[in-house]
Design goal:
The protein is of the alpha/beta class. The chain is built from 9 helices and 14 strands. It has a 7-stranded mixed sheet, with helices on both faces. The longest helix has 17 residues.
Length: 294
């Protein structure tokens, strides 16, 4: 079964109802996602795209049985919006907003720790898509197709390119998760890898990570202890000279210089040439299937 979202997911859009948000929600609806309502304080009782607008997430969830919220608010309002969704019982909260203040993310992580059934994807997430079932986010749907490859990406456009190559070689994806590239995330790369590990339909997992990725050592440690599936990685920006790389505000584990080596040391196939992503994934899948057959 897919991870995070599927055809049973019931989606609300929380926050603004401007032209941009209407466009993205319309695209989600066209894809077949069950978008059931908007939430905007002070606008309850109206409609947009034939969907009801509620004043609060709690009321929207009570009336529609929503399970997923797509949060479109400015950075300074993310903490309040996510807190409202969590306290209303929303299971998956997907936030495309970038540059959320660090002190707000600390508060959000604390709230999430008290509500283990709620999970935040993002901030700065392009969204989550389970091909042919549910799309919640801003990604272009045409690059995805159902298949056996799980993708977790902190680099949106490179993630789309990887998905497009995998689709064009005839494989496709179980679920694509845009995890965001903020200093503090709601859900970690390791948590997404663990979800893919439990998914029987996922045969291999591709990680698209930035050269500044702060989870490098944690990812490697989890892989060494818990992973049984083939793993691949693309490190965005690995060719940038070290002297030109921006340092991160917070560093947790691997440095810019060694993240690719750390992943290689635990058996991850690191793809150097982004033009060969699809070919590399196909090779790994074929080898894994032959091994299982023999």
């Amino acid at each position: 079964m897919p991870i995070l979202v599927d055809r049973s997911s019931r989606v609300i859009c929380q926050g603004h109802i401007s032209e941009e948000e209407v466009f993205y929600i319309h695209q989600c609806k066209l894809y077949g996602s069950q978008v059931v309502a908007w939430v905007k304080a002070g606008s309850g009782g109206s409609e947009k795209l034939d969907l009801p607008v509620f004043d609060s997430v709690r009321e929207a969830r009570r009336q529609t049985s929503a399970t997923v919220s797509l949060v479109f608010v400015e950075p300074g309002a993310v903490a309040d919006a996510v807190t409202e969704a969590v306290e209303s019982g929303i299971e998956k909260i997907i936030c495309p907003t970038a540059s959320v203040p660090l002190h707000d993310m600390v508060k959000i992580r604390y709230i999430l720790s008290k509500h283990p059934t709620s999970h935040l994807i993002g901030p700065s997430s392009c969204g989550v898509i389970t091909p042919s079932q549910c799309k919640v986010g801003v990604m272009p749907a045409y690059v995805f197709a159902p298949g056996p490859v799980g993708i977790v990406s902190s680099v949106d456009t490179l993630g789309y390119e990887a998905a497009w190559q995998i689709t064009n070689i005839g494989l496709g994806q179980t679920t694509f998760c845009g995890i965001g590239d903020e200093v503090i995330r709601g859900t970690s790369v390791v948590e997404i890898l663990a979800d893919f590990e439990q998914d029987e339909q996922t045969e291999a997992v591709l990680m698209i990570l930035h050269h500044r990725e702060r989870e490098g050592d944690a990812i490697a440690e989890w892989i060494e202890k818990s992973s049984r599936k083939p793993l691949l990685a693309v490190i965005a920006g690995h060719t940038v000279p070290l002297t030109s790389r921006r340092s991160s505000v917070v560093t947790e584990g691997s440095t810019d210089r060694d993240i690719a080596d750390v992943l290689r040391s635990v058996g991850v196939k690191v793809i150097e040439d982004i033009a060969t992503i699809g070919f590399a994934v196909e090779q790994v899948i074929t080898k894994s299937r032959l091994k299982d057959f023999l």
